[in-house]
Specification:
about 40% helix, about 25% strand
C-alpha cells in the first residue's frame, strides 16, 4: 500500500504540488492524469524519492519512505519512462539484468530471470537476448523497458507516459501486455498519463490533478459518470464519454437468448468494441461465445447502447 499524505512540493515560490493526499491499494493500477504542468510526474517521483516533498509524507506499507536510503529504495521500485531509457551499448539481456546485478544476484539467477521475463513478454530468449536496443522495434523496446523495471521483482512499478511515443496499434498491444503482466505479478503500478482514455482503460482508480491539486480520485466509472468539476469533465470529454463507459465492461452481462447471423463475439469482449463491430457490419445483434467457443446467446446493439447510459443514470 502506498499512502500519500498531505504532500506539497515547492520550487522557490512556485507551488508544483499542493497538499495532495491519496491511498493506492496493493496490486492495483492507479493512473494519475492531468495537463502539462499539473504536478502528476512530480507526485510519482516523490514515491521513489527522485524528488523530495517540501511538506507531507509518503508511506509504503506503513513505512515513511524518507527513512529508507534513496538508492536502496529506488532499487526496490521499478521505473519506466516514455523513451524506455535502455542502455544502447548493452544487450537486451544485460539491460534487463541491470538491477539484479547491482543487487548482487549471481549469474545463473540473473540469466534465469532474464529468460523468464523475455518469455513473459513474448520475446524468444534465443532470438532477443543478445540483440541491442537499436535492433528492436519501438514496441519491443517498450517491452524490454518494462521487463528491466520488473527484473528484481519490485512490489511497485512507476510508469511515466510509457506509451506516449508508440503508434496507436503498438500502443494498444503494449497496454494489453501491461494488464496481463500486472495480473500475473500482482505489482502495484502508478501510471502517469495525459490521456484520459488510457487512464480509464488501465486504471483501477484515477487521480485527476489540476495546477498541483487533487480534484478527484475515484474508479473510472465514477470519474466518467460523476466528474467532480468542469476541469474533470473537460478531461473526460463529453463527446465520447458514452464510448468510454462502454469500454469498462464486457458483453457477458448483456447476453440474452436467441440467434444471430455473422461472426461471433467472445463474452470477454468489451462493450465498446462489440458495438463498433455491430455498427461497422450493419447488424442489429451478434452471437456470443464463451472461451471454449460454445454459444451463449446474442448481444444486441440496442442493449449495448442502453448500457452506455447506465452510470449517468
Amino acid at each position: 500500500m502506498i499512502e500519500i499524505r498531505n504532500v506539497t512540493k515547492r520550487y522557490g515560490d512556485a507551488l508544483v504540488v499542493d497538499d495532495v493526499s491519496l491511498v493506492i491499494e496493493p496490486r492495483t493500477i492507479a493512473a494519475i492524469v492531468g495537463t502539462s504542468g499539473s504536478g502528476k510526474t512530480t507526485v510519482m517521483r516523490m514515491v521513489n524519492r527522485m524528488t523530495e516533498p517540501s511538506e507531507g509524507a509518503i508511506l509504503i506499507d506503513g513505512v515513511d519512505n524518507r527513512t529508507i536510503d534513496g538508492p536502496a529504495l529506488r532499487r526496490r521500485i521499478g521505473y519506466v519512462i516514455q523513451d524506455h531509457g535502455l542502455f544502447p551499448h548493452r544487450t537486451v539481456a544485460e539491460n534487463i539484468a541491470t538491477v539484479p546485478r547491482l543487487l548482487g544476484w549471481d549469474r545463473p539467477a540473473r540469466e534465469a530471470r532474464v529468460g523468464e521475463l523475455l518469455d513473459l513478454f513474448g520475446l524468444e530468449p534465443a532470438r532477443f537476448a543478445a540483440r541491442y536496443p537499436h535492433e528492436l522495434s519501438g514496441g519491443q523496446q517498450q517491452r524490454v523497458g518494462v521487463a528491466r523495471a520488473l527484473a528484481a521483482r519490485p512490489n511497485i512499478l512507476l510508469m511515466d507516459e510509457p506509451f506516449g511515443a508508440l503508434d496507436p496499434i503498438i500502443r494498444a498491444k503494449a497496454q494489453a501486455d501491461l494488464l496481463a503482466v500486472q495480473r500475473a505479478t500482482g505489482t502495484t503500478i502508478i501510471l502517469v498519463t495525459h490521456d484520459m482514455e488510457e487512464a480509464v482503460h488501465l486504471g483501477d482508480r484515477i487521480a485527476v490533478l489540476d495546477a498541483g491539486r487533487l480534484v478527484q480520485y475515484a474508479e473510472p466509472a465514477e470519474i466518467l459518470s460523476r466528474p467532480a468539476n468542469r476541469f474533470v469533465e473537460d478531461m473526460v470529454g463529453s463527446a465520447d464519454r458514452a464510448f468510454k463507459v462502454l469500454s469498462l465492461a464486457s458483453v457477458a452481462g448483456l447476453v440474452e437468448p436467441g440467434s444471430a447471423e455473422g461472426p461471433a463475439l467472445p463474452a470477454s469482449a468489451n462493450r465498446r468494441d462489440a458495438l463498433a463491430e455491430l455498427l461497422w457490419s450493419n447488424r442489429a445483434a451478434a452471437p456470443v461465445i464463451d472461451d471454449a467457443g460454445q454459444p451463449l446467446g446474442i448481444v444486441s446493439a440496442a442493449a449495448l447502447m442502453a448500457s452506455a447510459a447506465g452510470p449517468q443514470a
